[in-house]
């Protein structure tokens, strides 16, 4: 069993495609197929079920996957340990972020790259639930995610970037525009504009509605809070937004919710983070801010 075979196997599983896995590994697709066939012969089991539209794991593949990831992680750790002894910082760091945040990611990466040019940095965008899952299984080293005030994902440490209220926002001519406060229970009587399921803001909204004994009537969804603000300003419903965005957007009237909702954006990373490059980037990202870990 070779490391290359395990790398290709994990790539096919994560990409759900032999073609995309080959592009990711920068090899020809037949090479990936050949190595997977050799791996299957060595373990004596079919690992992947191929179809015209998808690639799925067999039970044997499901059993092998965590061990393959652990073996690859162990090799990366060994290489990092050797580099540390040699006084070198190299390797790869994977960062993920939600769609809207106040962090200058481009500047952070550029400054880090200037000092550590041998470190490869990748950046991806997703919703908070997906980012947390990728942190947990090692596909990401660092991520900016949205969490509730009392939310502490197991196995992760966090550093707060922002902590602010979540409010309702309506157009200036909306019937609620004269209100300063709105009970969460009254949201059921209005079409809502929210981020999709899986985002931190949507989780705050759904949890608050459940506690109030109602179901959120989400009429419009958008992937960015800026788009939510635009929809709200056009009178399409009650937008659920971070307070700073609601109060700083012309054409919107912000309304405090009762009980109050709050959310925070945080840097998050695995508590067992071991890579020196990832640790250095984490320390640089969180330097100079008050946060909690």
From TrEMBL:
<protein>
    <recommendedName>
        <fullName>Probable hydrogen peroxide-inducible genes activator</fullName>
    </recommendedName>
</protein>
<feature type="domain" description="HTH lysR-type">
    <location>
        <begin position="1"/>
        <end position="58"/>
    </location>
</feature>
<comment type="function">
    <text>Required for the induction the katG gene for catalase. Involved in the response to hydrogen peroxide.</text>
</comment>
<keyword id="KW-0804">Transcription</keyword>
<dbReference type="InterPro" id="IPR000847">
    <property type="entry name" value="LysR_HTH_N"/>
</dbReference>
<dbReference type="InterPro" id="IPR036390">
    <property type="entry name" value="WH_DNA-bd_sf"/>
</dbReference>
<dbReference type="GO" id="GO:0032993">
    <property type="term" value="C:protein-DNA complex"/>
</dbReference>
<dbReference type="Pfam" id="PF03466">
    <property type="entry name" value="LysR_substrate"/>
</dbReference>
<dbReference type="Pfam" id="PF00126">
    <property type="entry name" value="HTH_1"/>
</dbReference>
<keyword id="KW-0010">Activator</keyword>
<dbReference type="GO" id="GO:0003700">
    <property type="term" value="F:DNA-binding transcription factor activity"/>
</dbReference>
<comment type="similarity">
    <text>Belongs to the LysR transcriptional regulatory family.</text>
</comment>
<dbReference type="InterPro" id="IPR036388">
    <property type="entry name" value="WH-like_DNA-bd_sf"/>
</dbReference>
<dbReference type="GO" id="GO:0003677">
    <property type="term" value="F:DNA binding"/>
</dbReference>
<keyword id="KW-0805">Transcription regulation</keyword>
<dbReference type="InterPro" id="IPR005119">
    <property type="entry name" value="LysR_subst-bd"/>
</dbReference>
<keyword id="KW-0238">DNA-binding</keyword>
């Amino acid at each position: 069993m070779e490391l290359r075979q395990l790398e290709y196997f994990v790539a096919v599983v994560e990409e759900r495609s032999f073609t995309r896995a080959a592009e990711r590994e920068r090899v020809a697709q037949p090479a990936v197929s050949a190595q997977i066939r050799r791996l299957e012969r060595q373990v004596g089991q079919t690992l992947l079920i191929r179809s015209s539209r998808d690639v799925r794991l067999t039970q044997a593949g499901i059993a092998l996957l965590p061990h393959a990831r652990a073996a690859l992680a162990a090799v990366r750790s060994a290489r990092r340990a050797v580099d540390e002894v040699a006084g070198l910082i190299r390797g790869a760091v994977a960062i993920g972020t939600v769609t809207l945040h106040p962090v200058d990611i481009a500047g952070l990466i550029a400054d880090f790259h200037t000092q550590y040019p041998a470190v490869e940095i990748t950046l991806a965008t997703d919703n908070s639930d997906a980012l947390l899952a990728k942190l947990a299984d090692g596909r990401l080293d660092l991520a900016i995610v949205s969490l509730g005030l009392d939310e502490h994902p197991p196995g992760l440490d966090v550093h707060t970037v922002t902590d602010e209220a979540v409010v309702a926002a309506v157009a200036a001519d909306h019937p609620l525009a004269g209100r300063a406060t709105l009970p969460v229970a009254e949201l059921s009587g209005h079409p809502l504009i929210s981020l999709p399921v899986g985002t931190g803001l949507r989780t705050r909204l759904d949890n608050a509605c459940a506690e109030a004994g109602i179901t959120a009537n989400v009429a419009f969804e958008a992937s960015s809070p800026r788009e939510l603000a635009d929809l709200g300003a056009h009178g399409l419903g009650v937008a659920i937004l971070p307070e700073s965005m609601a109060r700083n957007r012309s054409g919107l009237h912000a309304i405090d919710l009762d009980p109050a909702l709050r959310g925070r954006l945080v840097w998050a990373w695995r508590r067992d983070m071991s890579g020196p490059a990832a640790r250095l980037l984490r320390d640089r990202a969180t330097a100079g801010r008050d946060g909690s870990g």
